[in-house]
Amino acid sequence: MAGSAPPGAAEREVRAIHQRWAEETAAKDLDGLMAHVAEDVVSYEHAGPLGYRGIEEVREICRNGLAASPGPVAWDIPDLTVRVGGDLAVAWGLEHIRSTGADGSTAETWSRGTRVFERRDGGWAMVHQHLSFPLPS
């Protein structure tokens, strides 16, 4: 596509967004977390209704998640896969979250995450995400 970055550069850009999200999660920087989320995002979260529409609903979910862990929070996707085609990118992987509660207790969870990005105004915006926990076997 004319004007699009080469796939290697685009993949690096999407990976960099994920890296910034990890850093912003640790810093509990809600505005930073929202910087690459599209106004018209649709998100299927771990809990709650079947879906959330729009950046304000997703912002509230993120706000609640950060508030639920008053201590340090770490988030990463060690096996992140990114595929880019033109102005769309898809990223997925197993997400590892470690958090510390007010009483010092720690929690560690793994879940699955898939995100779709669209190139808008020269940058990448997340237009969809789907998060889920594996069912116990």
UniProtKB/TrEMBL annotation:
InterPro entries associated with the record: NTF2-like_dom_sf, SnoaL-like
One Pfam family in the UniProt entry: SnoaL_3
Name by which UniProt lists this protein: YybH family protein
Domain called SnoaL-like: residue spans: 14-136
